[in-house]
């Protein structure tokens, strides 16, 4: 639906005389300032377009790669109900990826181009999906912590200045909040279960806590893009603000589950009314983002082989579409 307008995309800005460019920039800035949405066919600065393509495509790739750690447990879910719920959740993540590729396409890149970058290993996706899912409790921890972090980060994007991204995010957030609740419900069942089940839940929290805290990206001092993205209202909060909010909301949930957050320095700070957490191991984050996490290689191999195995489906669908076009034209 969005790609129909690509032929004329941005043509009005291709040969803009310098004086007009200044006026266009002023109009664009004023629109952002008034909290109005920027739509695909409108003039926008090249750097704004590039930033959106970068962020939306990384986000789309994250949803698609994010299907893998949980997909790993579909055949081993402990009950039929858990299996049905997990299949639905993993399908939702695939759907999110598709909305987001569509939103990126409105900016003049093709989905094929973006997928090729992912498969070539030149595109980023969220660090969190490079960790393994070793037990069933990991599925609970992903829903609770990873989807919890994703919602925290994504609710503000519903107010992003770029219309198609903001609108995609409204629906995605509704689904993510269901995902978060199913994860918390798994954790609650385990936490109220046998001592072995409680130990499994604690072990999952131990392994997923820090990677979830890192999901929000580098600290504000290290974040290259935050300041400009905030000015453009692509981001509404900084990485550290969102991370803090996540910690403040999640620690009481861990207390409720009678699980221990694996951070000996974690404490409530009465003065600021926030939890203060221990030092984040940014060297681990850097390693994972650079491709050296526990599962980076496995994740890319899985995506490459899925792409190859799905080739006949894409070819069949294209042939069918071509046949329909020919019939319609006859
Ligand atoms: N992993 O200057 P900043 C989900 C990169 S969806 C890897 O702070 P920015 C759903 C960053 O790209 C999860 N790389 O960048 C689900 C940049 O690299 P570049 C994904 C990271 O863009 C749940 C560099 O570091 N969500 O979980 C990470 O202003 C369960 C400098 O960083 C989104 O994508 C990271 N964690 O802020 C699915 C939300 N963090 O491009 C299945 C939208 C940073 O210069 C199961 N994205 N980097 O080479 C955003 O909000 C932002 O892009 C941030 C990064 C906050 C992720």
Largest sheet: 2 strands, antiparallel
If strands are numbered along the chain, what order do they take across the biggest sheet?
1-2
SSE class: mainly alpha
Strand percentage lies at under 5%
Ligands and ions found: Phenylacetyl coenzyme A
**Number of beta-strand segments:** 2
Helix content: 55-70%
What's the alpha carbon Rg, rounded to whole Å?
22 Å
| Secondary-structure element string | HHHHHHHHHHEEHHH
Kindly report the average pLDDT value: 94
What's the overall geometry?
globular
Unreliable sequence segments: 1-13
Number of DSSP helical runs: 13
Distance between the termini: 24 Å
Describe the structure.
Helix 4 (80-105) packs antiparallel against helix 7 (163-191) and helix 6 (136-154) runs parallel beside helix 8 (195-214). Helices cover 65% and strands 2% of the residues. The chain is built from 13 helices and 2 strands, in the order ααααααααααββααα. Mean pLDDT is 94; it is low at 1-13. It is an all-alpha fold. The protein has a two-stranded antiparallel ribbon. The structure holds Phenylacetyl coenzyme A (FAQ). The site of Phenylacetyl coenzyme A has 29 residues, from helix 2, helix 6 and helix 9.
């Amino acid at each position: 639906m969005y790609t129909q307008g690509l032929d004329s995309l941005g043509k009005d800005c291709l040969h803009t005389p310098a004086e007009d460019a200044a006026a266009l920039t002023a109009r664009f800035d004023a629109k952002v300032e008034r909290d109005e949405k920027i739509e695909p066919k409108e003039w926008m600065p090249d750097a704004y377009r590039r930033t959106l393509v970068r962020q939306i495509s990384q986000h789309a790739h994250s949803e698609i790669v994010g299907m893998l750690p949980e997909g790993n447990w579909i055949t081993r879910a402990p009950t039929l109900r858990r299996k049905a719920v997990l299949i639905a959740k993993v399908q939702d993540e695939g759907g999110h990826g598709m909305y987001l590729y569509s939103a990126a396409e409105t900016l003049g890149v093709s989905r094929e181009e973006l997928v090729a970058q992912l498969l070539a290993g030149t595109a980023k996706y969220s660090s969190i999906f490079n960790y393994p899912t070793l037990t069933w409790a990991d599925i609970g921890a992903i829903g609770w912590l990873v989807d919890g972090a994703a919602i925290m980060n994504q609710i503000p994007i519903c107010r992003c200045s770029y219309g198609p991204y903001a609108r995609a995010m409204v629906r995605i957030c509704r689904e993510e909040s269901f995902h978060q609740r199913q994860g918390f419900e798994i954790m609650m069942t385990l936490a109220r279960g046998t001592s072995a089940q409680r130990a499994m839940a604690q072990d999952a929290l131990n392994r997923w806590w820090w990677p979830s805290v890192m999901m929000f990206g580098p600290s504000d001092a290290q974040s290259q893009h935050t300041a400009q993205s905030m000015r453009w209202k692509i981001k509404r909060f900084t990485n550290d603000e969102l991370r803090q909010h996540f910690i403040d909301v999640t620690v009481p949930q861990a207390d409720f589950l009678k699980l221990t957050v694996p951070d000996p320095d974690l404490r409530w700070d009465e003065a600021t009314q926030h939890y203060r957490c221990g030092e984040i191991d940014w060297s681990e984050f850097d390693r994972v983002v650079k491709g050296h996490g526990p599962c980076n290689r496995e994740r890319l191999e899985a995506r490459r082989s899925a792409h190859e195995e799905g080739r006949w489906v894409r070819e069949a669908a294209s042939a069918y579409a071509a046949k329909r076009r020919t019939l319609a034209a006859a």
